[in-house]
Request: fold
Amino acid sequence: MSKSIFYHAGCPVCISAEHDIVNLIGAEQVEIVHLGEDRERIAEAEKAGVNSVPALVTPNGNTLHLNFGASIADVKA
Amino acid sequence: MSKSIFYHAGCPVCISAEHDIVNLIGAEQVEIVHLGEDRERIAEAEKAGVNSVPALVTPNGNTLHLNFGASIADVKA
Reply:
C-alpha cells in the first residue's frame, strides 16, 4: 500500500496537526510535504483536491482537510 | 494508550471520513460515536473542543476537524 501524503505550509495549525497525524498513523506511513518549501508540488496537491492546509491525502486518493491553517491560494501567493 | 474518538452525525461527509480514518489508524484504535444517536455525548464532544463533525479527538486530547459535515449547533438542533 502506498503512503498517505500530508501537505502543510509550516503554520502552527499545520505543525500541530502533523504531530497528531504522525502519532496516529506512524511516521513511516506518511510523507510530509511542506508546500512553502516544495513549491513545485503545489500543483500536485491541488490536483489531489487539496483546498487548504493542513490536509492529508489517503492512499486511496481521498483528501481530508484537517482544521484550517491556510488556503492553497494563500500558499501560492 | 487510550483510543481516539471519532465523532460524527451520519452525514455523507462523516461516513466518508470515518472510512478513511478507520483505514488509516485501524478500527481497534478508534471509538466511533454517532452524535445523532448518542445525543447524551454531545456535551462531552463540545468539552473536547469539537465544533463540527466529523472530528477526531486524539488520545492526547487534540481535536482534528476533518472536512466539514455539520456544525455541532446543527447536530443539537
Observations:
- The beta strands of chain A are 4-8, 30-34, 52-57, 63-71.
